[in-house]
Amino acid sequence: MSERHTELELVQVTKKYGETIAVDAIDHRFKPASYACLLGPSGCGKSSTLRMIAGHETVSSGAVLISKKDVSKLPPAKRGTAMMFQNYALFPHLSVAENVAFSLKMKGTEKTSRLKSAGEMLELVDLSKLADRMPDQLSGGQQQRVALARALITRPQVLLLDEPLSALDPFLRIRMRSELKKLQRELGITFVHVTHGQDEALALADEIVVMNNAVIEQAGSARDVFDAPKTAFVARFLGGHNVIDLPEGQFALRADQLTLTAADAGRMEAQVLDVEYQGTHVSVTTRIAGNQDVAVLMSDRDFFTQSQNPGDTVGLTWEQEKLHRLQS
User: Fold this and answer.
1) What pLDDT does 1 receive?
2) Is the CB of residue 51 less than 8 Å from the CB of residue 85?
3) What are the phi and psi torsion angles at 229 (to 5°)?
4) Residue 3's pLDDT is what?
5) Among 7, 165, 23, 186, which Cα is nearest to 80's?
6) Strands 190-195 and 35-39: what pairing?
7) pLDDT tens string 241-271
8) Domains of the chain by range and CATH?
9) Are 100 and 94 in contact (CB under 8 A)?
10) Helix (H) or strand (E) holding 315
11) Which of these, 69, 163, 204, 324, is most buried using a 10 Å CB contact count?
12) What pLDDT was estimated at residue 174?
């Protein structure tokens, strides 16, 4: 569909709303033809960053480069990007095919040609049979795929997705994650996807960019960021990690890399606070010295061979090399 080596780069990109800094001089080069997720809590600057790449927000300072060209002053239609919005924004009075073809109509493309292109896009997202339906006759997942086809018909170099799965029920959300990833691989273009869902980012992303307080806290492959968080914020936000203060510093330790033992057999004594059965796993919340809560994630088989209850005193142990030192 597009060049496979389109490079998207942010250079000291800043966004201010009056005196409020929403995005603070961020630098990042996205890997070409990759699926990247901007991940972070509400208000961290991720959606403002996406909208500046798209051209729907002005850049206060800095530059957005696509294939080394500064597109910061160009209108959205001239950037080589397309954006899929959170609410899909389908026109209720237009058919599925007409919705998909709308941007070509605005460009003056002749009707037969634009509907042919729309048909190709609908085939790509497996909706050819629904071309004549109206949006209110579609399920949430079908509406999402129409919005996706409408974004792709402009043949963008970079596709921008703003919380595209948030309106779907959990089962459909998981299914659509798979479809988005498959589509990105088939097209070979860069996808930049904004989410506050850690599971969503880990499932989809070749690269995760974690944002906090208007800056990039950490970026890297999904596995690298999860296995080696640099800061306490990243460790806590990604989930699955404990942040523990020890005499020699602050460390992250994954909950599944801790083991419960007898109180006198562990590296550290703890008291069981809560036990939560999660099907294949059991999460045991404990408290250690200094009123620090530490979660232990165990297989259901391991837990029920030694079953612990709130109030029990236990030992915690781990392999020393699993402790991951955090930046202060």
Assistant:
1) 43
2) no
3) -60, 140
4) 46
5) 7
6) parallel
7) 999 999 999 999 999 999 999 999 999 999 9
8) 8-227 (3.40.50.300), 244-325 (2.40.50.100)
9) no
10) strand 313-317
11) 204
12) 86
